[in-house]
Amino acid sequence: xxxxxxxxxxxxxxxxxxxxxxxxxxxxxxxxxxxxxxxxxxxxxxxxxxxxxxxxxxxxxxxxxxxxxxxxxxxxxxxxxxxxxxxxxxxxxxxxxxxxxxxxxxxxxxxxxxxxxxxxxxxxxxxxxxxxxxxxxxxxxxxxxxxxxxxxxxxxxxxxxxxxxxxxxxxxxxxxxxxxxxxxxxxxxxxxxxxxxxxxxxxxxxxxxxxxxxxxxxxxxxxxxxxxxxxxxxxxxxxxxxxxxxxxxxxxxxxxxxxxxxxxxxxxxxxxxxxxxxxxxxxxxxxxxxxxxxxxxxxxxxxxxxxxxxxxxxxxxxxxxxxxxxxxxxxxxxxxxxxxxxxxxxxxxxxxxxxxxxxxxxxxxxxxxxxxxxxxxxxxxxxxxxxxxxxxxxxxxxxxxxxxxxxxxxxxxxxxxxxxxxxxxxxxxxxxxxxxxxxxxxxxxxxxxxxxxxxx
Length: 456
Fold this sequence. Notes:
Helix content: 40-55%
Radius of gyration: 20 Å
CATH architecture of the domain at 6-13 and 78-110 and 239-447: 3-Layer(aba) Sandwich
Strand content: 15-25%
Strand order of the largest sheet: 1-4-5-15-10-11-14
Number of helices: 18
Structural class: alpha/beta
CATH topology of the domain at 6-13 and 78-110 and 239-447: Rossmann fold
Shape: globular
Largest sheet: 7 strands, mixed
Low-confidence stretches: none
Number of strands: 15
């Protein structure tokens, strides 16, 4: 058996362009709509929030978009990342499956997020923006944007979901170390935050609400833009630097995946890895490729939500996006996988799911931590709570191979380490980690508040 564990690329092999899946869709994405008119938004509608280059990337159908050298130079700090063969996990499971994982935990903030954070800060800096606001759930995105701000000398303000602010203090300290200002959301600093605190003083917060606060502050100042860490097309575009590397590395390993597994909250990490591969399924080169998106039972967006237009935030400040949604009023249970608690999903992933090119699965929190501990005890990496979800499904698929005798190749999108998430593991070992399944009646209640589309 081939004992090689690590597959690597040279710095000069960092991709020079991002891959844009919109060039290869069999049907175009549903447009983003203006909530007042019901018509597709134009550049002028988005200009108060984003630099024009990102707006162009959001709607572009060009297959390749060049990565500026200033961004590639910063990527060199951690890219290309390593593809690992999980020999020890395979042996433990006694499976004929070949298991690989592309590990994004070697970036300075410890996750995939700086792939887009660095790019977004760069384009804002080019447009003369001095300050950026954003939201963060578990803190990976907030710390990544803070790192990007430090790279280019741009001030960063982060609204962090309150329960994660309490559960993950070291993420806040990371942001402060890179010079950012991090506040818990809901906060008394915005109209949206004050309204929620008046109604629910102990509100644990949500990504939708934190987005409302960040957007509200951004539009109130001429020197400030807003940055989003997932969901939007340009964010997924930037993340394809990972998938393009992975494709080269799988060729080095002389394999092609039968199954690709990743966790989804907004969807940027997993989409960034699988989009260069799903192209092969779309064009018929690899029709049997399976792509499994894994979400938590406590925020079952794709597995239980309808495909509908909804706001991306709680206060209704954003345009209307067609996505699988639990309703913009959704307040999730306080699970430790804060990065997976969004009410919606990336339109690109939703479109692929709706067309039948990808699958979706939901998992309980306890089982995912069991998988994370198994992975740590075999492969050595203590994973963030988010990738534990896809580790659970990858292990399940490997055990199915054990039963069938099939030597399938499984590829895992591993989004980052859990070194600042040890309180979650402490809760697991102490028997305090609870499973949550979001009640159907609460989903029905949230969906009753989906916005009406003007003209329909």
